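Assemble and predict.
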Amino acid sequence: MKFLLKKIPRFVLVLVALMIFGLIRAPFEERVRDEMIEAKLLLPPPAQDTIENLSQSALMATLGGLRSLAALYLSLGAFEHFSNKDWDELRNSYLIITSMEPRDETHWVSVVWHLGINAAANMEIDRNLPMFERKRRFNEYVTEAVALAEKGIAQIPDSAAIRVQLAEVYREKLKDPCATAQTYKDMVGLPGAPGYAIRFYGYFLADCPGKEQEAYDHLMSLYQVEKHRKKGTLPIKIRELEEKLKIPQSERIPPDPRSRRTPSENGKTVLPGGIELR
Amino acid sequence: MSKESAEKEERIAPADRKVPLFSLGRAWIIARGTVTQLIRMKTLYFLLAFALIIVAFGNFSLGGTAAKELSTIKRACFGAMDSFAWMFAIISTALLIPRDQEDRTLYTILSKPVRRMEYLVGKLIGVLVVIGVFLALMFVVTSMILIARQSSFIGDELSAMDQNSRMSQEQRIAQIEFIQRQGFRFELGISAIASFLKAAVIASVTILLSTFASSSLFTIVISLLVFLIGHFHSLANSFYKYHSGDNIIVQMLLKLVKILIPDFQLYAFSEGIVMGGAVIYPLVWQMGLITVGYLVVFLMLSALIFVDKEF
């Protein structure tokens, strides 16, 4: 040993010892890393496209273990982009934020809301842009919002909040009742899902071409439950479907007493209480 | 020989006395000296700055829901704690040995029957004690802020729900539990421990570097580089594999870096816990073991260089 210490330079010995230690610990660390990723305590390495999009400071922060702080800083920056209606910068910020903290539901909800609702709404009213450009950008933002929501759902499969936001985009901007219905259906039973999701599924399915019968069956099953029956929209939707599907009178739900109108002798409509409609 | 003369002889010939290979007592005395040394460097001002940051974050309304605000405060506070721990570990450790040399304390210590290994262990323990105490204090401050904000948010939420008569008791409980999940949990302490473990590893790396470095600046810069590369492992692997395909030289270089430099990214499990992840204690124990492994190996290697170093 003394011979070795005398003959071989110390830094060479140090390097060799470090390499031996590294070879011993590497498999152990790999296993611990995999277990931590599985337990959602550690994030898997960011995807390639994200690495290329990372700004220098964000990259440094990722390396330096300041992931949370960098995400927070970028979120504040994103809010500024929102205030300035700088939608492309906002999208770029959120692409990095969601890559840094993919398991934070609020980031996904925010980006879907910003792009799918705010940016799209801005494109509907922004007179500074020609109509064609506005339509093109509207489609771009909404499509991106949907794609990001799907990425978020893939990261957090139990997230009801992302689905609520996605449903809003389908409902308000894409006017797609079939996709809206499907999104509400997907969130039923998830932790934190709103109680109305099960009814909204039926309401939007009712407007989806070819799905009327399915919607009618679903809404009728809800109608049997006392707490749902109290909701004003439910009987209205059922009555609409009864008309569309030409359900026999005997099988229809009772008419709404509040909206009952009786024709008077002179042909005018009389509301309950004897008020005549002119 | 009389008893008196024997005692006298023993006093004048200390070199004949056997010095144990390692004494934890002597290392502890050096550690205490290091703690005093660090306190005299006015490191407590770090805590003051941290407290100000926490109080500012705690009282700053960031918008959004109660749960989101709590989550933001929590992430900012624990991020600051983590940054403080590793920065302090690098800078203080890099300064200690050169400072002892400048003050000539090092010569006094090493002229006593103190083994060089004990000196290094003492220095490291001293730094770790200071980091540990600071982290504990920061954790207490953070917890107090979190608990205060959480109870204020819950109060506001309950009064808002009282005004909304349509909310059932179950819905109210679910909302309060949701806020509580983002607030203070005792498991957050494990996150602080993870920051401590990471700081301990980088401190031991810095000790190794400072045993052969010519200046504190060199030690700090190289330690920072090691720290950054240690975080870079997994990211660099995927990045370079993507760009260079199966280039054998790149692969070998990546492997070399991986086995030479500690993997600091592993300690990022603290962020997972802060984000609400469940603590898996066997994994925490394994991380503790890995850290002990790093400390032992880096201290032994530091001693290997330091033992024959001439000042």
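Chain A touches chain B through 46 residues (CB under 8 Å).
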